[in-house]
Please model this.
Amino acid sequence: MEREKIVDIVNDFLVNEFEVDGDEISNDANLKKTLGLDSLDYIDMVVVIESNFGVKLGEADFKQMVTFDDFYTTIENKIAAKNA
Model:
C-alpha cells in the first residue's frame, strides 16, 4: 500500500472517529499532544488500524512514535513486514 493512501486513511479516521481537527495534523506535529487520547482511545485506535490495514500496533509501537510521520511510518513498515 502506498504511503499516500496510508496517510489519507489514517487522517480520515482520526478526523471522523476521534474528532481530531484536521488542520492540526501534519507530519511533524506531536502525535500525543495533537490527539489528546486517553488509554481507551488508544485501544480503539488499535482496532481501527487493524481493521483498515490488517496489522496490529502494540504499546511498544506507540512509545516509539513522536510525530505523525512516525505513526505513518510504523504502519507502513508493519504492512511491508506482513506482506514480505
